[in-house]
Design brief:
With about 375 residues, this protein is α/β, with parallel strands linked by helices. It has two domains: about 5-135, 3-Layer(aba) Sandwich (Rossmann fold), CATH 3.40.50.720; about 140-280 and about 280-315, Dihydrodipicolinate Reductase, domain 2. It contains ten helices and 17 strands. The strands form three sheets. Strands 16-15-14-13-7-12-11-8-17 form a nine-stranded mixed beta sheet. A six-stranded parallel beta sheet has the order 3-2-1-4-5-6, sandwiched between helices. Helix 4 (about 85-95) packs parallel to helix 5 (about 110-125), helix 5 (about 110-125) packs antiparallel against helix 10 and helix 8 (about 190-200) crosses helix 10 (about 350-365). The protein starts with a strand and ends in a 7-residue tail after the last strand.
Amino acid sequence: MTKPVLNVGLVGSGFMGRCHANAFRAVGGLFDLPVDIHLHTLADIDDDTATLQARKLGFAYATGDWHTLIDNPDIDLVAITAPNALHEAITLAAINAGKNVYCEKPLSTTCESAKRMTDAAEQAGTTTLVGFNFLRNPLVHYAKGLIERGELGDIISFRGRHAEDYMGDPDTPHSFRTAVDGGGALADIGSHIVAMARFLIGPIAQVNAMTETVHKTRPERPGSTVRKPVETDDVAHALLRFGNGAAGSIDVSWMMKGKTMDLSFDITGTKGALQFTQERMNELLVWTDKDGPGNGGFRKIETGPAHPPYGQFCPAPGHHLGFNDLKVIEVAELIECIKQGKPHYTGFREGYEVQCTIDAMLASARHNQWVDVSDFIQP
């Protein structure tokens, strides 16, 4: 039986653009999808770049103007991996053209911008997803199940960190990441750990944050000897109060030497605790009171077929999932939501509330005081 075709348009072919393209190519061979995926059009910064990358990534058509992609009536889903400051314009155009939208995190650069995107999507009935791909890890869902079943007791605290080192060199030049409308470390990579905290523990009610710009200047562009001031954060620390009464903290840095992908958390409850780091993404450490006296210490849970959808990738435990596999899972979830016409748990509404939490942290850092996140969230 012939399946309907889902035509995909991709804006951007950098690191995350390649991840999206790889996921769209792979997903049909791993999941029983209700549609066949067709990589239709790739849009990039100019025609030559788009043509080259479309050939490499398997797209049928290429354009140096994302408006051309949006205006094509054949395209059903627009995936956006362009710089953060462009997310709103591309998204609003795609929604207005009747497309479903898959936008990389952060949803936008301010909660006001993210709200406009969310309102437009909800009014149009558009299926949306924000690329918080680390939430697709089967062991993160296993951890959430332990929490929801009460196996850790009442949650006392969450300690989260997203630390990398790719901006640690002061001679790394300016890019969209350091632009004022790019968000800095907290908005860019910090959105992942904020999303993780909300997914596992629940909404964050109050924050008290501080931020720091470590390298005050950077070369204005690759190869330049002219240095320009940096106006966004390199490091951020925040104390948290969750809506359910739990306390917590989040640390964010793209300056932490030796850390390449330390998205990690420690969760403590009245009956147990969890530890996880993305650097060992196939392992979750679990401690519970049920272990009994003399049996103390964390047990290692290793991902396997008992943790769906691991079995879609491999029938044997111990062979491990990777970063790109999480994107494949994300795409499979998105396609199922499009088919059923239902919202995804990290649709634009969640992306908006993550952005509001980050904006509250930035406001707290500016004013050096506790801030209510609810002051930033509009219905």
